[in-house]
Specification:
Number of helices: 4
Structural class: mainly alpha
Largest sheet: 2 strands, antiparallel
Helix content: 40-55%
Strand content: 5-15%
Distance between the termini: 63 Å
Number of strands: 2
């Protein structure tokens, strides 16, 4: 967002209004950037956030609720069926 502000040519107030960001929030982040730049000798600062990849679910979980209140959950229907059969013995 700060890069967008730098290239916008708008005032802080105008940019904050256009982007729907509180003016004080924008001022805070600009101050943080300035302080990091001064403390680090003006070099590139590290990003505050890293991109992460969220793994997708391999299979949906199935659930078996037994009459005695026991709940079994698993991704393999055959294994759940075998477990229910074993518990009934």
């Amino acid at each position: 967002m700060l890069a967008s502000y730098d290239g916008s040519g708008l005032t802080r107030k105008g940019f904050a209004r256009r982007e729907g960001v509180a003016y004080n929030t924008l001022v805070y982040w600009l101050k943080q950037r300035r302080e990091r730049s001064q403390a680090g000798g003006g070099g590139e600062s590290k990003p505050l956030f890293d991109e992460v990849t969220v793994p997708t679910c391999a299979a949906s979980l199935q659930e078996v609720c037994l009459p005695d209140g026991l709940v079994l959950r698993g991704g393999d229907a055959q294994s759940l069926a075998a477990l229910v059969k074993a518990l009934r013995c």
